[in-house]
Design goal:
single chain; about 1000 residues; alpha+beta; seven-stranded antiparallel sheet; 28 helices
Length: about 1000
């Protein structure tokens, strides 16, 4: 490792005079990187049009699985195992692919569809990628989604202990489906089309995630959708019945997301409504805002004919912009005018009769008997704005990177002639501003001239860009206005993109009717007034999860989590734990976890606290307010479900005062497409990282570590891994003093600083997630939160990234030390509880593998993939609905979980390590000298805090403060002695 530092120093000194040559090489490298990714579908489509290519008029071909060209016979299931398909089917999974050959008579644009039967847990989407003749034709072809269908487990909603209706369990619908390949972000209103040459072509579907059975592959001409004038002529003699039929929106036939859920609205305008209880009386809202989410209802017509459709809706999107739905009848878009139908902003319930611009209702043809009506969330009217924003954000990112390379780490207040280095910077900034102005005008046309939040934010972003263009020499000192600040142009554009993509809509009911009047969507004034008065008085007595007095025979539990978590936990407890044990439990939302110490001092504490930060049990335990869980005979058996290193911050002396509840992880994320294309190996050690850095940086890219997070304060979770991996420690064995000045720890601190000062890793990265998506940081170490973001909010690169354990330091025996913290939440019992045995029973049940798995799966099923539950229970984590290969990596990294033990003066050690890093990186101070100064400050604070808690008196040690180790925890779990 030290030889690498010397080598880098020589390289830097040798090549400084050749800055221009390096810059040119870097530019060539960036051009090479751009060739890795295909251009977007809309750009490719424009080029095809210019070449004279167009959609073919008529073509339809179905290729059965028996004709797939590259599949193993063992993956072709017999007809008897095809779930009623009636032919052999292909079992598509585990990164396998299928290839078909299709011959066409005419070169042109074709649609590609698949018959499929979803398999597996279905919570995470099934995803694939399509290649045509060996290539990805456009970037969107790298991710094709195969939705599953879901339904409510019951239409008779059950109630909880308070009589409020509970969201029913969701069940997947087991049936064959067909889908045409669409953009995974649904920014195009029609399915994707693919360029096929005259003659033979190959189409390959590569597995990215999930599993399914595949039947026929369909290659067809794009479907033609008539306009409304043509549509109503299809049945010229059809009747126009007068009858009105009402359907409750919260009872759909099916949906393609399990987490589009019924909602309880406390509003007398909604039906059904009960003043005393919460009823699930609406559908959607924020649970129905993701592009492509579709809800289908079954309707019945007594006679065939043309009917009107009206939806009782509330569309109170915070930005006040319209949202859009694609309307289908019997799985078909009946006419073009309802492909992108707008629901305008309204704070109040209103009846939206589907109509044209003049206000004349559209008529929809229904067959006699059962029919289906579907609404699909559709962001495609905003697509052109989103494309422009994405283009500008990429440009800003590249410009910011160029400026950072130019100014280095310490920009200070130096004067710059920026145009000498970036001569076209003014034209760039003004050009982006002009493009955004065009999109502002377009959004105004969509909103009917009303200024929405997105429009206002666009105008601010434009002002930022124009201001920077006026004084380009000030940009190096004003990067917070361009890209890094919370109110920068880049941040504003990112927020706008998120807002425009979201399409929330809440429905109460809908009507299938003729030319008849509709019920008033609003309750009358007197009914609302009466309801408001009654609700006011009920608020003094109702059970609303607030902390309150509970009966003596009931366990009181405070939970530091959002309401939906607490409601689910209460329902699971009432249905499972209480009937089995007879122990009653009342959960309450915790107002502020920091007030637990005060509550304990005032003897108003609960019996248990769940979901609290892992430092809280320590603060309570050292003050004698927490129960030592080792007093329970089965503690060892229970504790074996967790990583031993997770207990370290929960220990005081010989006691363990909480159980780990959730657990973070730091793993290495990398872009498979970029690393493979550039033939850069994925590093296993920090030495490997330093070896690939020159190649990454040659292409204008870099490596990310959490040290580059925006805050100047570097917490233990970012600094401790380097000290641990180099063999160092933080405290003396007896707890009386720090060891960060010892050689191993010092080596780790020095290397931690060298990553920035010598190896030129990024100094500050506002958000790794964005840089990872845009390829400027295609590899780096990041936590659980980044995993959730990439899994749920980066569809354009889904399947093209992966994770490995984080890099470590190779030892003499060839092993690699990857020690890292994994801060999470914990659960504890209060010493003031009079029901300690019952509390322990509840804690054991809550943290058991069965309960944790059920909670995690239900949470994601009801609320979406972003509600991943990173349980600390290792057996339960292995059963979660995540890709198996990712779970194995995370579990492997958790073998090196080593949390930082708590001491009364731990905060001072954490602060001073951070200060050392800042002094070395920003001020060029010698690492050893900086550490020596910090040790003096740490020891001064240590003596003060240890005297406060009785470990020292008058500067002399009274008793040792034992620092727990993983070996100690393992012994306790094995013997509980």
């Amino acid at each position: 490792m030290k030889s690498n530092v010397l080598l880098w120093s020589l390289i830097i000194l040798f090549f400084i005079p050749q800055t221009v040559v390096l810059a040119n090489g870097e530019k060539d490298g960036e051009e090479a990187v751009k060739q890795i990714a295909e251009q977007s579908y809309h750009l490719e489509l424009n080029e095809w049009k210019k070449q004279g290519l167009d959609s073919v008029a008529q073509f339809e071909r179905a290729i059965p699985p028996s004709s797939f060209t590259n599949v193993d016979d063992e993956d072709l299931l017999p007809s008897s195992e095809s779930h009623g398909y009636g032919d052999r089917v292909f079992y598509w999974r585990n990164q396998k692919s299928l290839t078909v050959e299709v011959e066409v008579d005419k070169e042109g644009l074709y649609e590609i569809g698949f018959d499929y039967f979803p398999q597996g847990d279905l919570i995470m989407p099934i995803e694939g990628a399509i290649q045509v003749n060996g290539n990805f034709p456009f970037s969107e072809s790298r991710q094709i989604v195969f939705p599953a269908k879901w339904k409510n487990g019951t239409e008779d909603f059950k109630t909880d202990r308070s009589g409020n209706e509970i969201i029913p369990k969701q069940e997947p619908i087991q049936e064959w489906m067909q889908v045409k390949a669409e953009d995974s972000t649904y920014q195009y209103k029609r399915p994707l089309t693919f360029h096929l040459n005259e003659g033979k072509n190959t189409i390959t579907l590569q597995n990215l995630r999930g599993e399914m059975l595949v039947g026929d592959v369909h290659v067809t001409a794009p479907a033609q959708i008539p306009d409304y004038a043509s549509y109503v002529k299809e049945h010229p003699d059809a009747a126009k019945p007068k009858k009105r039929t009402t359907y409750e929106a919260e009872h759909p036939l099916e949906k393609n997301s399990s987490y589009i859920r019924p909602m309880a609205e406390e509003d007398p305008s909604v039906h059904p409504y009960d003043q005393d209880h919460l009823l699930l009386n609406t559908l959607g809202g924020d649970s129905w805002k993701k592009p492509g989410q579709t809800v289908t209802w079954e309707v019945e017509a007594e006679e065939a004919g043309y009917y009107q459709l009206s939806f009782k809706a509330i569309q109170n999107k915070e930005s006040q912009s319209p949202v859009y739905r694609t309307i289908k009848v019997n799985d078909r878009v009946p006419f073009k005018e309802v492909e992108q139908y707008a629901f305008q902003y309204s704070k109040e319930w209103y009846n939206e009769t589907i109509r044209d611009e003049k206000g004349d209702p559209y008529l929809f043809y229904l067959e006699k008997g059962k029919n289906t009506v579907s609404l699909k969330a559709d962001p495609s009217p905003n697509a052109r704005v989103l494309f422009t924003i994405d283009k500008v954000m990429r440009g800003i990112d590249e410009l910011s990177l160029s400026i950072r390379k130019l100014i280095g780490n310490g920009q200070g207040n130096r004067d710059w002639d920026i145009e000498e280095y970036l001569p076209d910077i003014q034209d760039q900034l003004n050009g982006w501003a002009d493009q955004l102005k065009e999109e502002t005008d377009y959004l105004l046309s969509l909103s009917g001239g009303e200024e929405t939040t997105e429009i206002a934010s666009l105008q601010i972003a434009i002002e930022r860009l124009e201001m920077l263009a006026e004084t380009p020499d000030e940009i190096p000192n004003q990067l917070t206005q361009l890209s890094t600040g919370s109110n920068s142009a880049a941040q504003l554009l990112g927020d706008i993109s998120t807002d425009l993509t979201a399409q929330p809509l809440l429905l109460d009911r809908f009507y299938v009717h003729g030319d008849t009047s509709l019920p008033n969507p609003q309750a009358g004034f007197f009914k609302k007034a009466k309801d408001s008065i009654v609700s006011f008085f009920q608020s003094f007595t109702e059970d609303n999860l607030a902390t309150a007095e509970v009966s003596d025979d009931t366990l009181e539990v405070w939970v530091n989590r959002p309401r939906q978590y607490v409601e689910l936990l209460q329902n699971m407890t009432d249905q499972n734990f209480t009937p089995e044990t007879g122990i009653k439990v009342k959960y309450s939302l915790m107002p502020d976890e920091q007030k637990l110490v005060l509550a304990s001092a005032a003897d108003t504490q609960p019996d248990l606290a769940l979901g609290i930060s892992n430092w809280v049990p320590y603060e309570l335990a050292i003050r004698g307010a927490a129960v030592d869980l080792r007093q329970f005979e089965d503690f060892g058996e229970v504790g074996k479900q967790f990583s031993p290193g997770a207990f370290l911050p929960l220990v005081v002396d010989e006691g363990v005062y909480a159980l780990p509840e959730t657990q973070d992880f730091f793993v290495q994320f990398y872009r498979k497409d970029i690393m493979q294309e550039l033939d850069i190996p994925v590093p296993d050690t920090w030495e490997d990282v330093t070896e690939i850095l020159p190649e990454l940086q040659r292409y204008g890219m870099n490596y990310y570590t959490p040290l580059a997070q925006e805050s100047a304060f570097k917490a233990f979770q970012t600094t401790a891994p380097f000290i641990y991996q180099f063999g160092g420690s933080l405290y003396k064995e007896n707890g009386i003093g720090t060891t960060i000045d010892e050689e191993d720890a010092l080596e780790g601190i020095q290397f931690m600083a060298d990553l920035t000062t010598i190896y030129s890793m990024p100094l500050q990265v506002p958000r790794f997630y964005n840089h990872f998506r845009y390829s400027t940081l295609p590899i780096g170490v990041a936590p659980f939160g980044t995993y959730v973001e990439l899994t749920t909010a980066a569809p354009e690169i889904s399947g093209w990234w992966d994770i490995t354990p984080q890099p470590g330091v190779k030892q003499e025996d060839g092993s690699v030390e990857r020690w890292a913290p994994g801060s999470g939440q914990a659960s504890m019992i209060f010493d003031g509880s009079g029901k300690k045995e019952d509390a322990w029973e509840l804690l054991k049940w809550w943290m058991s593998s069965e309960t944790q798995t059920e909670f995690a799966v239900t949470l994601q099923t009801l609320f979406g993939p972003e509600y991943m539950w990173n349980t600390a229970n290792l057996d339960s984590f292995a059963q979660l609905p995540l890709p198996d290969e990712h779970k194995q990596v995370i579990l492997e990294q958790w073998e090196y979980l080593r949390e930082v033990p708590k001491t009364p003066y731990a905060y001072m050690v954490e602060r001073e390590i951070s200060n050392v890093w800042n002094k070395v990186v920003f001020e060029g101070e010698n690492a050893r000298a900086a550490v020596d100064d910090s040790v003096i400050l740490i020891n001064r604070e240590m003596r003060r805090k240890l005297e406060e808690f009785g470990y020292m008196e008058n500067g002399k040690v009274v008793k040792d403060y034992t620092i727990p180790t993983i070996e100690t925890i393992e012994r306790w779990l094995e013997t509980n002695e």
